[in-house]
Amino acid sequence: MRLLGTGAAVLALLAASMVVTEGTVARPAMATTAAPPTAATTTSYPIPGDALFVAPTGNDANAGTQAAPLRTAGAAVAKASAGKMTTIVLRAGEYRERLGYVAVPVTLQPYPGEQVWFKGSSVIQPGQWIADGGAWRLDNWNPGSVCRASAPAYDECMNPLHFNDDNPVGGDPQMVFVDGEPLRQVATREEVRAGTFFHDGTADKTYIGADPAGRRVEVTAIKSGMHFFAGADGSIVRGLGFAHYGSSQNQTKEPAAVIAQAKDMVFENNTIIHNAATGLLVNADNIRVNRNAITDNGYLGIQAHRSANLTVEGNRVSRNNTERLGYSAGYNLSGAGMFATRVHNAVVRDNVFEANQGNGLWCDLSCHKLTAVRNLIRGNSRHGLHYKVSGEALLASNVLAGNGVTGLSVLGSNKVRIINNTSVGNGQAIAVQEDSRPTCPGDDDDCPTDAERALGITWDTADTTLMNNVIAADAGTAPLVNTTDNNTAESGRRVGGDGMIPVAQMHHNGYSRELAGTPGTLVQWSRVTGASLHFPSLAEFQAATGRDAGSRYQESSFLVNAPAGDYRLLPGSPAETAGAALPADVAAAIGVPATGQVRLGALAWPGEPLAAEHLRNGSADGASTVPWWTTGAQLAAVDGELRASVADGTAEAVLAQRTAPLVSGRTYTLSFDARASADVAVQVAVQEGDAPYNAALAQDVELEAAAQRFSFPFTATTDTTVAEVAFQLGGKGALTVHLDNVSLVENTWGVSKEPKATEAEALAAAAATGRLVEVLAERGETREVYATPDGSFTSKEHFQPVRVFKDGVWVPLDTTLRKQPDGSIVPGAVPTSLKLSGGGGGPLVTINRAGRPMALTWPTTLPTPWLDGDTAVYPRVLPDVDLRVRAEPEGFSHVLVVKTAQAAKDPRLATIKLGLSAPGLTVRAAEDGTQEAVDEATGAVVYEAPVPIMWDSTPPAAQAMKALGSPETDQPDGNVGADASATQPGDTSKIAAVATTVANGEMTLTPDASLLTGSDTTYPVYIDPMWDTPRASARLMVSSAGWAKYNFTKTEGMGRCPRDYPPSGRYCNGWYEKRLFYRVPTAKFAHKQIISAEFHAEETFATSCRKRIVDIHLATAFGAGSTWNSTKDNWGRRLDSRNVAKGWSSGCPAGDVLFNVTSAMRQAAKEGWSSTTFGLRARDGDDQLAWKRFERNAFVRVHYNSPPPQPKMSQLSSSPGGPCRGPQTPATFNRLPTLFAKNLTDPDNKGVEGEKLKAQFQVKWYAGGVLKTKNLGTVKKMSASGPRRATFSVKVPAGVVPQGTTAHWEVRAYDGRAWSPWSSAGNATACYFLYDARALPEPVITSTAYPPLDPANPGQTPTDGVGKYGAFAITMDARVAKYAWAMNTDPSEGSAKTKTAATESVTAMPTHAGLNTLYVTAWDAANNWSTGTYEFWVAEGKAPKAHWKMDEAAGATQLADSAGAYPATPLGGAQLGVTGALGKAINLNGTGAYAATSGPVLNTAQNLAVSAWVKLPATLPTTHLIVASQAGTKMAGFSLKYDPGDKKWRFFRTQADGSTVGAGTAVSANPARPGVWTHLVGVQDVVAKKLRIYVNGVEGVAAGLGPVWAAGNAFQIGAGLWNGQLGYFVPGRIDDVRAFDRIVTADEVHDLFTIKPVVESKWHLNSATGSPATSPDTGQGVPYPLTLNGAAKITTDWSKVLVQSPAGTPSGALELPGGNNDYASAGGAVIDTRDSFTVSAWVSTPGTPGRVMTVLGLAGSYNSAIAVRYDPAKKRYVVDVPSKDGTGATTATVEHSTFHQGNYGDWDHLALTFDATEGTVTLWVNGNKEAAAGGNLSFRHGTRPFGPIASLQVGRSLAGGGYPAGRAWAGVIDDVWVLRGVASQDLINQLSLPTELGAIPG
């Protein structure tokens, strides 16, 4: 079935009920709209000859013929005869009437092809409305036929129990519609605004917030449409629409729009919509309800009561209970799509029950023999299919998807067969539970009747069958299958799971989880006695219970794409043949053969597409603006856009639309195009449609004249009946805003099972697959990050570790204890090494964090422990005293369990002394009772302990309590309070602190004697010290009773303990309130754009199902010693609130509560907070019903976007004006310029230049001392996507900048969500210019070789040209005396030539692909100057004519040319397959080995270039060497060579083939370096007559070019021809040789050099040998062993080592104790710091140091060119860059706000890059560069390290001629790399994974 768009026929329901049969029908398509029906179904029923006709133009005095129709249907019914079927045909139109008593058989149908509506409303004319203070009032509105509803009770109209606290007027049946759209009712006159109304039942007044002028306003006036009684048996109602009826929830007052109390009726193809209570009520036998659309009714869609043989087939029942009735009192009174009671032998088949606020399909109170098959039950807020206190049912082949509570729920019902259903994406998949009823004798709601008992209905869950189902997990914590027995132990009626589901009747099911351990419990199995069993795996459940034989489990979906609505099994899935044979009656009911293979899951269901779109009329294609509404603005649909005009002075102006509901926890995307008449920032929000209008998304967007596309993903934080998209336009002055393509869709992104290493790879995969793709580089102990298909990221930040990096792989956290072969006991996987005693002597427990061990020893020999999960129990360490040691995710606790009063008197308990060993640590107790173990070398806290506490086992009181304020029909599930245990105090426990002292190697605990041995103490007593490793994340509970729990375990209470309410209050020991704090690290979000963020915490218990408000606040920091009193002032602004109740019973089950914390995360990102603290507290701290319990495993989910990087000054230019100039030298010109920004990039688009980007330009100047700003607009890129094509330009318009005024301009980039910093931010400047019409006119440049750039033509075709000369004509003013030109750079005056003509001609060559600019500067005699520019597009340069990559394997006999034409042959013993610079290489022996082609490659008399990588021996050769040449007869035409005389590289030519006289020699700037890879390029330019040489991208000394000649023989590699002899053989390696038949430009040389950074040095630090010990350098350059000094050593202790070596190689790391002489050094210039380079290292230190500590330095003779250190004052890493290697140096710094917030505990990965081209130093921490440029953040422009250096120092740095004392690194350093060149983001991401790389990947 498909719901069609607005204005179309609404239901394709006809026999339209398309049913998907698994494996035979194509996948359903996505719906394009979620619009509710606005038209009745179009039908064509036959008309019998004796039919009566009714028409809006008729007259009830007529005969009722077609020619003389009646006016009303009531008149036609009055003419019908008893006992005879009368057909009544209605002509098109609206009938505002009520057929209140139909007792004759009639068929009501429309005329063929026409649409008929019965409406319960009246049209109110505009003149009846009276303007009333911003609203419009209708007086004397008192329709007598509508139920009277008066506040506060409304009890005439409804059962008060149905009230919802969130919607107190939900029971009022009054409704108002404007232009067909319902207004939302509010409770007071003051709340009225656009889109709402208020009905004052006492004064008979109705107020609306929309101006009725020109609108059609309808107000409800009739309570029901049709009511059929006995006598109307067999009546048929078909093809009609019913709307606007004021039906009542009071069952005695016409509770539905259409009521059937006559037998054998048929309802088909009707539309029943927007009625106040129920749509259709069935209360008779043998009724068929087929193919109807029943939607958007206030309470129920369909209600059936005491109806036998009912058939409900092919209907669409959606979005009912719009009034949210029944929420306050538990699900048993909530609304539903269909609600049936005491129906017998009903068939519910092929229906869609979707998005109802309540249950989808609900059968209750002795339903019997229900057959519910082939239904699609999706997106309902509570249970999907709920079968309660009933008997015998077949629930088969249903799809239950995305329902809020349970997909399929059976409660108190017997003989229910659950077969071949698909339950996916629900809060809980399947629940089979026992109700606490029957409580016989009792009324009908408490006990089945005798007649029902005779049918076998017991109201006890038993004889359940569960087979062939697909049972899929949601992302929540609920088990997939839950069995709960709600009977109390005292009742004697508990049967547990064993009694509900027999062994033989649970089998062949398919279970799936997307992630291992989510949820942790696969099956929860209730027991007759004791707590339920929680089985984490299918195998454990099968073994323990014998059930689920033949069932299967997998950690991936069985289904094609359930989030997108495709519920078919994946082709080829084992589930296709995994089902058990079907009983014949089941097969017949489903409609499949009874024989053959059976699939798991649903076999057929309605093919209803998933309605993704929540908004209507988002594209304004017609003239209507409905359903958009405004306040304070004029709205129109013009030219396919929504146009909202706001007058000046309007403070509040809103454009909004109410939408379909949002579901908490689901993600959505809002997107739209927008432009405005002025530059303006407006806010768009997606928020609740009702007060308090909490926003799930609130985003500021900057609009301008050009349309922009905006897109924002977010997660809904609360369930809404109605949501609202609102644009806030007020307070901006006169404004017109244009909107188009406004869309709100639910994201149907699944999770890919194939994570990617880097952000770029994950983004690409997400875009390609439409799924969330995890970024492995971001996976951590407490974090996972996913790339989204829309190009952003979503991060999940946990408050405690959830996984551990162990043996080189991530494994789930596992605190379960295991015995080791040596007898010791260790947990499965925790972040910090933990070892417990296996008994006997030695330490009780040893914890070791980063090589800092601490051990506690029990004073006597320990008994052998027994293991209880995460706890080792040492029995009877003292008489009747057990010692329990529990492994925690962050540490451990050791609890003494004192079992008896006699045991408590043991004097050894009065003072408990434990041996304490903590080498290198100082353990101290603070005044507040907390304890710290502090690293003596760093001052960091390595371990901490909160104030130890003790508690007793005081039980809950057993006295009478006052009852709740109103009845609670639901009973609490399980325990209602926390009992005392070894893990936490009970709510009624007495609690006291334990005094602690540390001295002389002992820790002494002194329990509180009054509690330990008190007369009112209840045993056992628990004494609980615990130790944690401090982390960025933490939790805290504080109690007003005076105690707190730091890093609380399990759950904790919040609010006022409900001592006065049973049964919860029995667990309160005093009148106390609790509050909770959570701290999460947030440094990684610094300067990111936070789109949305939500805090998730599972509420496990509430005092009742009555909702109470819990607030979340931004809070200040807390510590292990924080208390109620010390945190009273910690509460900052309130961020959000939730009115919830979860965990009291199955009516309001436990579940996640989501809070919108976007504003806090935005503040944290903007201000670079290292961590952010949240606080949870009850809104009313004295309200006992606000008591809740929350799980410790909370998390924050953040949707974020990385803004584009700041545009660099080097990317900016103007025409005229030239390159960007600072304030000291502004460009001067006599006409206004065009501004250019070139090659901007977007990090969220794989760094591709300009794929999504736009750029905004603005110009500023001072006038009268006031800064003026003109926004020049946001412009799109000027060409198609691709390398160097992201160029943007805008012309400064005339009349903007005054003449004679120095102005400046700047630019920023926009990626569709976020802006980069302005180009002038940080230590950059704006681009300055002086506009003066009298100034020297700029030169005018033209060229026919290179056509000029056309900014108006984005598709302009580039000209072939890199490496190719072209002619340019330069026309200059008569005053010009001289001129100079340069390509893509500012011409220097020193290169100027005298002007000899008005027009000069120059020959120039573009230097790179994309936009090139020829700059020409002209000077007059007075040295006034101006610069002209000429921009033109150029294609990529011609590929090499030959390219030998040298990647062949050893033994190969030919070197392939990638172009295919010129293979080369290795000769003379040349060795292939050795390690090269870029891959493999050729190794030459220097005596005769080389490679050569069979003939010439290049014409050596023309332009050419040759490039190669070469690595000479560690000692430079003493003979000439030729790397590449092309032979003539006697001489080489050119030689790229090494000269031993000055040890430099040369590019050399001779004058002729037989001559040894040179024709030019270009010489390198610096001598060759031995033992390192060097990149060489030689260029011959016959036009400029120049030879050039480049070494590592640096140009040497060029030479003039003499006569050239063509060498016609072989191209030779590693040798050359000289005077007829082949020689000059290279001893070394050569890689990647390229031969070009054109010039290679300097830009291209740079690109060739930086294709891949060269690993100059690399220390894996796995071993050290010799004396002094050295660790080898395994890089590609000259080896510089790292010498260990002082106490520095290589450790292989696995607890101290993170980076994993390849299999078979021990992993090690450099351990530095922190002394002044404890360091390692590599003597020699490991890198030339004047060129681009990268340094990378892993570093670790436990805790947060209290002193400066140095990671490394690149030392010169007096200072370090680069020093990386930790700054304790700023708690971050800092890079120092001195200006020179001597006295008087100034120091620039670069900082990064992240410290110890990576993915691997105390380890951080650091990478420092220097880009010599840009002069930029950048610090990366854990793969992240901070996004914004600031004074000292992340990166710094215009900063250059000095050079050369003399050594690398690890653990210290040279400063001021010495090594400052007290600054050495204390900790571990590993895997240090030094690379020549700037590492890319991808490479840094690779290096930030803790796995050793042998070489650079790729």
UniProtKB/TrEMBL annotation:
<dbReference type="InterPro" id="IPR039448">
    <property type="entry name" value="Beta_helix"/>
</dbReference>
<keyword id="KW-1015">Disulfide bond</keyword>
<feature type="domain" description="LamG-like jellyroll fold">
    <location>
        <begin position="1502"/>
        <end position="1643"/>
    </location>
</feature>
<dbReference type="GO" id="GO:0006955">
    <property type="term" value="P:immune response"/>
</dbReference>
<dbReference type="Pfam" id="PF13385">
    <property type="entry name" value="Laminin_G_3"/>
</dbReference>
<dbReference type="InterPro" id="IPR013320">
    <property type="entry name" value="ConA-like_dom_sf"/>
</dbReference>
<keyword id="KW-0732">Signal</keyword>
<dbReference type="InterPro" id="IPR006626">
    <property type="entry name" value="PbH1"/>
</dbReference>
<dbReference type="Pfam" id="PF02018">
    <property type="entry name" value="CBM_4_9"/>
</dbReference>
<feature type="signal peptide">
    <location>
        <begin position="1"/>
        <end position="31"/>
    </location>
</feature>
<dbReference type="InterPro" id="IPR011050">
    <property type="entry name" value="Pectin_lyase_fold/virulence"/>
</dbReference>
<dbReference type="InterPro" id="IPR012334">
    <property type="entry name" value="Pectin_lyas_fold"/>
</dbReference>
<feature type="domain" description="LamG-like jellyroll fold">
    <location>
        <begin position="1731"/>
        <end position="1882"/>
    </location>
</feature>
<dbReference type="GO" id="GO:0016798">
    <property type="term" value="F:hydrolase activity, acting on glycosyl bonds"/>
</dbReference>
<dbReference type="InterPro" id="IPR008979">
    <property type="entry name" value="Galactose-bd-like_sf"/>
</dbReference>
<dbReference type="InterPro" id="IPR042837">
    <property type="entry name" value="PTX3"/>
</dbReference>
<feature type="region of interest" description="Disordered">
    <location>
        <begin position="961"/>
        <end position="987"/>
    </location>
</feature>
<keyword id="KW-0378">Hydrolase</keyword>
<protein>
    <submittedName>
        <fullName>Parallel beta-helix repeat protein</fullName>
    </submittedName>
</protein>
<dbReference type="Pfam" id="PF13229">
    <property type="entry name" value="Beta_helix"/>
</dbReference>
<feature type="region of interest" description="Disordered">
    <location>
        <begin position="1201"/>
        <end position="1222"/>
    </location>
</feature>
<dbReference type="InterPro" id="IPR006558">
    <property type="entry name" value="LamG-like"/>
</dbReference>
<dbReference type="InterPro" id="IPR003305">
    <property type="entry name" value="CenC_carb-bd"/>
</dbReference>
